[in-house]
Model the fold of this input.
Amino acid sequence: MPIATVNPANGETLKTYEAMGAEEIERRLQLAEATFRTYRTTTFAERAKLLHRAAGLLDEIQQDIGRVMTTEMGKPIKQARAEAAKCAKAMRWYAENAEALLADEEPADADVKESGASRVRVRYRPLGPVLAVMPWNFPLWQVIRFAAPALMAGNVALLKHASNVPQTALFLEDLFHQAGYSEGVFQTLLIGSGAVEEILRDERVKAATLTGSEPAGRSVAATCGDMVKKTVLELGGSDPYVVMPSADIDRAAEIAVTARVQNNGQSCIAAKRFIVHADVYDAFAEKFVRGMQTLKVGDPMDEDTDVGPLSSEQGRADLEELVDDATRSGARVLCGGERPDGDGWYYRPTVLTDITREMRIHREEAFGPVATLYRVDDLDEAVLLANDSPFGLSSNVWTRDDAEVDRFVRDLEAGAVYVNGMTASHPAFPFGGVKRSGYGRELSGHGIREFCNITTVWHGA
Done:
C-alpha cells in the first residue's frame, strides 16, 4: 500500500510520500536510544509541562488538524474536531495524574518484616523506546492515548502510522517538537508494513503496542513473542448491544444509531450486533431503523453530515461482501444495503435481520455502517448470543433491573460493560478486550503501567 493521502470522498490522490530507507530508520533508532538515556531522568513536573504545552498547541489548531483527518480518512468534520479536543483532554489528564499513578508503592509492614527487610518499595521505571503501530480510523486519538501515558512514564515513542494518514502522522511528530520535546522523544516512521518486523527485532526497541486488525496483531505478537518483548494489542470488535424489556426504548434506539455509525461505522468499539428481547423487539426495531434512515450521508466537510465515506474502496468492497453473503443466505434488509450514486466510497446506513450463525457477518467484524438485529426470548439467550463471537472488546446493556445488570457484568465476555449508554473511551478508565480483541489495557493507571519495569526495591534490615 503506498504512503499517500487519498481523499475517500472522491478518490483523489492528494499527496504521496517516499518510505524511509534503512539509513534514515537507523538514524532514528539511534536517536531514540540516545534520547531515552536522558529523557528517562526528567522529573514528572518537567514532563507535565511539556505535555500541557502540546495540549495547548493542539487546541489552537483543532480546526486545521480536523480538516486533515477528514481529508485523509473521511470522518465527519465535527467528529474530527471532537477527536482533537478529546486528545488534548487526555494529555492534560495524564500530565496532572501520572506522578500519582506511578508513585512508589509500599507493601504492608507485616509483610516487609516477614521478608527480613527494613523497607520494601515497588517502583515503576520506563522501559525505553516503544513502537506504536496505529490505525487510520481515529488517527489522532489512537496515537495520543498511547503517547501521553508513555511519555509521562519516561519512555520515548516511535510511531508507525497507517499508510493512508501520513499527514496526520507527520503532524503528531511536529506537535511534540513544537511543544519543546527533544527530537528523539516522539518520532514518526514513514514506512510500510513490511518494515515493521525488522524494527521489532531491533534490540533498541523494548516493547510494542498495536491497534488494528487481528492479522496485524498476530504478526506483531508473533515477532515480539520470538524476541520476548512486551506487547499490548487492541484488535477488532463486534460489540453486542442488548436491550431488555425494562429499558427506555426511545433512548436505547436513539443511542443505538450513534453507537453504530460513529466514525462512519468504522470503530472497533462501535455497537454492531443489536440483541433485543422479544417483548420490545418490534418497538425498538421500528425506532432504530427510522433513525438510521434519517441520517445524512454526504461530504464529510459539511457541518450537517452524519455519515461520510468509508476510508477506502477496499473497505467498502469488504463490507458489501458481508452484506451480500448475508442476504444470499436469507437475511432481510430493513434499510440501506447499497452504495449511493456518485463519487467516493460511501455506503448507506444499513440494518439486517434474520441473521444466522452460518452467515459471515455473524462472526466477522462489519467495519462500516451496517447493523445486525437479533430477537431473543430471555436473558439467558441474550448472554449466549452476545458471547457467540470471537471478539470481546466491549458491550452495551440496556435495562433498569439491577439483578439483570449483575448477571450481564458477571457473564458477558468483554473488556467493558456499559449500562444504559454507549461504549466510549475516557483517559481515567482502562480500555481493552479479551478473546481475539487482544490483551493488555490502555488508558488509566493500568495503561500507563503497561510499559513500565515494575521494580521491587528491597532494603535489608
